[in-house]
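Just wondering, can you check both lines?
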Amino acid sequence: MANPAAKTLTSAACHWLDDDRLREECGVFGIFERDDSAALTALGLHALQHRGQEAAGIVTFDGEHFHSERRMGLVGDNFNKRPVIDRLKGTSAIGHVRYSTTGETAIRNVQPLFADLDTGGFAVCHNGNLTNALTLRDRLIRDGAICQSTTDTEVLLHLLARSEKRRIVPRFIDALMQIEGAYALVALTNDMLLGARDPYGIRPLVLGRLGQSWVLASETCALDIIGAKFVREVQNGEVVAITENGLESHRPFPKRTPRPCIFEYIYFSRPDSLVGGRNVYEVRKKFGSQLAREAPVDADVVIPIPDSGVPAAIGFAQEAGIPFELGIIRNHYVGRTFIEPEQQVRKLGVKLKHSANAGPVRGNRVVLIDDSVVRGTTSEKIVQMMYEAGAREVHMRIACPPITHPDFYGIDTPDRSKLLAAKYDVEGMRAFMGASSLAFLTVDGIYRAMGFDGRNDTSPQFTDHCFTGDYPTHLTDQEGTPMHNKQLSLLAEVG
C-alpha cells in the first residue's frame, strides 16, 4: 500500500474544491465470453469514469478461478499497465467505477464485491442506492450475518446466500424481490453474466454486442469505446441472464410505468451517450432553448459554467439570438494538483477550478448558464468573478428546476436544510448569489423540452423527486427511526 502521506487527493478529499455539484453515482460494465475481457472492461470503465472517480475494480473468471483487482483512484491510474491486466485472466469480466453514496471511502467498499455461494462464485457491482438496505442489514446482522463492508451492495450477497432457491437466476430474483430503491446491477457467476434494472428503471443499463459477445454497461459511450453495437436498453424491472446458449430475459416484477432519473439528461450521462433513445447533448441543448423561451433576458453575451453548462448555453444562445462565448475557463487538473491544501489555498475557492476569460466579459451584460444549483456557493463565487472581470450585469439562468428535495437513489445530494432552493425563494436565491436576475427552467419546461406536453401529475414520465418531492419508491430507511443516521461500522480504515 502506498504511503498515505504521499497520496494525491481523491474525489472525496476534493469536495471542498467542488462542493456545489451533484455527485455522480457509479458506473457498471460487463462482458461475456470475449478474449482480453479485462482490457475491454478497463476501456469501458474509462468511458464511464465521469460516473465515479473514487475507486475502480474488475473481476474476471477464467473457467476455474475468479480474479479480482480493486483499487482506489482513477481507472487510468490503476488499470493502464499490462501486468495488472494480465493478472485478470479469463474471457468474462465485470467492472465498476465508484463514487460513494453509502459506505465510507475504503478499499473494502470498492466493487465488484465477491462471495462464494453453494452454487459457486458470485461477483456483483451496483449503480444506485437501496432505500431499505440499512433496515435489511440490521435484520441480517441480528440473524447472524457478518458484514465485511459498509456498502448497501453487500446486502444483496447475504440475501442470495440465504435464499432457499436452488438455481442462481431464481436466487437472484428472490433477492431482488426483497430490496427497494434504484439499481442497475451486473453480476458474474461461473457460467453466466447477469444484469438487472430496478422496477422503475431509475438507474440506466444498456445491452450491446461485440461480435458474438454480449456486453452490459451503464451508458452507450462505454459500448462505443470498445467498438460494440448498441442493441437496446435493459427494460425497467428486467433481469437478463447471458450464458453460452445466449440471452434469456426475465420479467419477475409487476408491470410498472418506467420512471428513469431525469438527472441522467441534466447532468450525469456523458453528452455523447444515448439515454432512452435520446442523444444527451441534444436534450441539454433543448433545455437551454426552452429556458430562453421561458426566461428571456436582454443581454450581450451567453457564457456557460463549464463543462456541464455548455450544451444548454448553446441552446439558449441560439434561441435568444445572443452570441455564445467561453467567458469562463475550467482547469480540469485541479483535483490532482495539491497534496494537502493549506487554508490560504482553500480561500482561493472557485478560482482553482474556474478562471474568468475577461475578453468576452468586460463591459458586457452577461447571461451565465449552469445545469443546476445545489448549495449555491459556486454560483455566488462565479457571479462575483464575472463582476471582477468587468461585467456590467450578470444574469443567472439554470437549465433545470430548483432542487428542493434530497435524493436517495444514488445521487449524493446534501440534506434538505443545505439545499439553497429549500431555504429561499427565487428572489432570495438571487440575492444570495448577487446576480442581476435569476431564473430556473420550470418542471413543465423540462418535460416540454423532452417532447411531452408537460408533467403529468398522475403519471410522471421521469423520476423528478428532487424538484417535486414525488419519490417513486418506499424510503424505508428514511421513514423508520433514525436508521439513516446510525453509524454503519466501528472500523476505520486508512488508505
